[in-house]
Write a structure and sequence with these properties.
The structure holds three protein chains of three kinds.
Chain A (H helix, E strand, L loop, with lengths): L3 E10 L2 E11 L4 E6 L5 H8 L7 E6 L8 E4 L4 H4 L5 H6 L14 H13 L15 H15 L3 E5 L7 H16 L3 E5 L11 E5 L4 E4 H6 L1 H9 L4
Parallel strand pairs in A: 3-7, 3-8, 5-6, 6-7
Antiparallel strand pairs in A: 1-2, 1-4, 8-9
Helix pairs in contact in A: 4-5
Chain B lengths: L4 E2 L19 E2 L37 E2 L5 H13 L8 E7 L3 E2 L9 E5 L6 E8 L9 E2 L2 E3 L3 E13 L2 E12 L2
Parallel strand pairs in B: 3-4, 7-11
Antiparallel strand pairs in B: 1-5, 2-11, 4-10, 6-7, 8-9, 10-11
Chain C lengths: L1 H10 L3 H19 L1 H6 L5 H18 L6 H21 L1 H25 L6 H10 L9 H20 L1 H9 L1 H6 L4 H23 L4 H15 L3 H26 L3 H28 L1
Helix pairs in contact in C: 2-8, 2-11, 2-12, 2-13, 4-5, 4-6, 4-7, 4-11, 5-6, 5-11, 8-11, 12-13, 12-14, 13-14
Classes of the chains: A alpha/beta, B mainly beta, C mainly alpha.
């Protein structure tokens, strides 16, 4: 049984649909890159997957072992966060809150988990630093550590390399790849073709919808058109 | 219900201030049976306990609450506390200084002598009513033993409450106008 | 100097001065807690909007003859807070317009009502100090004192219990929601606490100055401190300090209470601005 299956799903806002009758599956351990131009419905699909908005029709079926809250999420940065006074530690451990219900304070296990994820992403020295003073790449690693606190099964990333310089971009992709090799399922939105490097599956939204293996995508019409338009290159 | 309106209009700095008809000093009490209305004669029924000087005026050697030494914030707060919790101040000797601003009720012939007490923003005013010992009722212009309208006066008297038209009011009785 | 302290000591013999300090400090503590969240959520002006609503409600309470107007103003303000925070979630502009419409409307209607139906009690003074925060804190009735103390303590306890959740929905509402935090519920909680704080704070600084009481300590703390916890704690300390020293100054110097407290807040803000500037310069050098 697939980890996540999208069955005949139509997405959009206020009954205005952007993508219709989409059907595809995500298996455990997949690295799926979602490509497409602006307005093609990438973010809307992501928000539907996360339960932030409801699908217009169709449904998303989760594997019996996966709960909706088992999805870790790396959102795009918001304006609020840019001048937000918060330490790295505070942000990372807040990833544990989704499962804490009404319990007011963090448990020892949650603190250990946050500690481990900080270490995993090489943030030990930045632990008490202020988030807004970090570089773009460091900030993304902080948010990635937070996402790992909320789930070690599925990670959803919304354009994680936006605004990062090429060197840092490659570093971040390598980190994501190593997480995938540990067994975490990756679902990533991008309009950067580098994002394809580690992926094993591609969903291309647009005029023509493509879903399938990366190898097949590279031969497809959608890829050719996307390349001609230049992607983000 | 009797409405005592502050006849004078304090020059308000900010038009929003709603204290234009301020200065009512009705303690928030439950309606009770009306006793007799006082407030219009100059004689108190508690005369026996006061000592008089050679001029036949009451002498107050000890002053419990001296509003003349307090600043605007404290004076206004103190008078508000007297209005809020009148029972705690009964029989206390109070000294107050300020412009003489008598009130009138809906009856045009009425006159309630009072000293105006303002807060620090000068937007709110409370009146502290008093009855001079041995002086007949006042007029809205003042004079005849009372200060003239708006004249700065220092008054000492004994704090008492009285009921009128189902409402509890406060005033200083057996009051003396200190002219030095 | 000794004379000065003697003077303060003599003022503290007054029961209403003691009450004012206890209640004032508690209200200042409460109002600073949510300041950080409201500033970061771009709700700085919600204090103004809600306090005007509370004023309108208070005017209605006074006209119908309720001696304790918090009975009406509290639920009305809570309702307005929920409405405003919800509408601004859907669309930015609509929320802004809604705040302006409700608040100015309530202010006008409240003032009109007071003038059309003047009651014979102490209402006008109540309304006046409600707007300008002149001396309200010093003229509280015993019931109001206990109500303020009770509500302040409840607010602090709720804030501490839900502190981590409030942080999460402030920092990243979408992430919190996606990972299973009941963000709608906590936004509702923030709205209710905000409303309670505003009705309480009207007693301390008056409804026209409430935004200052909520925002200044948070902004000051954010100049210097870097983590959410340290910002929250230091803004609480700043707020309590400003309230206590402002209250003391206004009693000793005879200045209006609300504006004096806000003036202290402003001085502290510029001090922290300077300190923050020096720290960042030192770091760069």
């Amino acid at each position: 049984m697939p980890l996540l299956s999208f069955e005949n799903i139509s997405i959009g806002y206020d009954n205005h649909s952007i993508v219709e009758n989409l059907t595809f599956n995500i298996e455990k351990g997949d690295y799926l890159t979602i490509l497409g131009e602006n307005g093609a419905g990438k973010s809307t699909l992501l928000k539907t997957m996360l339960g932030l908005i409801k699908p217009l029709s169709g449904k998303i079926v989760f594997d019996a072992n996966v709960r909706k809250t088992d999805i870790g999420y790396l959102p795009q940065q918001t304006v609020v966060q840019r001048d937000f006074p918060a330490s790295v530690w505070e942000i990372v451990i807040s990833g544990c809150l989704g499962k804490s219900g009404f319990r007011p304070f963090y448990t020892k296990e949650e603190k250990a988990l946050a500690e481990a994820n900080i270490k995993k992403l090489g943030l030990e020295e930045l632990k008490n630093r202020c988030y807004r003073e970090l570089s773009g790449g460091q900030q993304q690693r902080v948010l990635l550590a937070r996402a790992l606190c909320s789930s070690d099964k599925i990670l959803v990333l919304d354009e994680p390399v936006t605004g990062l310089d090429p060197k840092v971009t490659i570093q971040l992709y390598d980190i994501i790849d190593s997480l995938n090799k540990e067994g975490i399922t990756i679902i990533m939105i991008s309009h950067d073709l580098h994002a394809l490097k580690h992926a094993n599956k591609v969903l291309h939204l647009g005029h023509e919808i493509f879903f399938g293996k990366k190898e097949d995508y590279l031969k497809s019409q959608s890829y050719q058109v996307f390349m001609d338009k230049g992607g983000e290159q | 219900m009797k409405r005592k309106a502050l006849l004078s209009i304090v020059p308000f700095i900010i038009a929003l201030a709603s204290c234009a008809n301020g200065g009512h000093y009705n303690a928030r009490s439950n309606p009770m049976d009306s006793l007799f209305a006082s407030g219009s004669t100059g004689k108190s029924v508690f005369q026996s306990s006061i000592s008089l000087n050679s001029d036949g005026l009451p002498v107050y050697e000890h002053i419990d609450i001296d509003l003349t030494t307090m600043n605007a914030t404290m004076v206004f707060s103190q008078v508000s506390d007297m209005i809020n919790k009148p029972s705690t101040y009964t029989s206390k000797i109070v000294k107050v200084k300020g412009p003489f601003r008598p009130y009138e009720s809906t009856d045009p012939n009425s006159c309630y002598p009072a000293i105006l007490v303002q807060d620090a923003t000068a937007c709110c005013g409370n009146g502290l009513e008093f009855l001079l010992y041995g002086v007949p009722r006042c007029t809205m212009q003042g004079g005849n033993g009372y200060p003239l309208f708006n004249e700065e006066a220092t008054i000492v008297g004994r704090f008492e409450t009285y009921l009128e038209d189902y409402s509890l009011y406060i005033h200083l009785v057996d009051a003396v106008w200190l002219k030095d | 100097m000794a004379e000065f302290f003697q003077m303060i000591a003599s003022y503290f013999e007054f029961r209403f001065v003691q009450y004012a300090f206890i209640v004032g400090i508690l209200i200042a503590l409460c109002s600073s807690l949510l300041g950080v969240t409201l500033v970061l959520k771009r709700f700085s002006f919600i204090g103004d909007g809600l306090s005007h609503m509370a004023f309108g409600a208070m005017a209605v309470a006074a006209v119908v003859g309720l001696t304790d107007n918090m009975i009406i103003s509290m639920p009305v303000t809570i309702g307005a807070a929920i409405l405003l925070l919800r509408s601004s979630q859907n669309s930015r502009i609509k929320g802004d317009a809604a705040v302006a419409m409700l608040s100015v409307g309530a202010l006008a209607m409240g003032y009109l009502l007071m003038n059309l139906f003047p009651t014979s009690s102490n209402v006008s003074a109540d309304v006046c100090t409600t707007l300008f925060g002149s001396v309200s804190i010093l003229t509280l009735s015993t019931i109001e004192v206990w109500l303020c103390i009770g509500l302040s303590i409840a607010t602090v306890i709720i804030f501490v219990l839900f502190y981590n959740k409030i942080f999460a929905v402030t920092f990243d509402e979408n992430f919190a929601r996606a990972t299973g935090v009941k963000a709608t519920l906590y936004n509702l909680l923030i709205a209710i606490i905000t409303a309670v704080i505003i009705v309480l704070a009207m007693n301390l600084v008056g409804s026209l100055l409430i935004s200052a009481l909520i925002i200044f300590p948070a902004l000051s703390a954010m100049r210097v401190f870097k983590s959410f916890k340290s910002v929250t704690i230091s803004s609480a300390i700043i707020s309590v300090f400003a309230a206590a020293s402002g209250l003391l100054l206004s009693i000793v110097r005879g200045t209006p209470v609300g504006p004096t407290i806000v003036a202290v807040d402003i001085v502290v803000f510029f001090a922290f601005l300077l300190v923050g500037f020096i720290i960042s310069r030192a770091r760069k050098a």
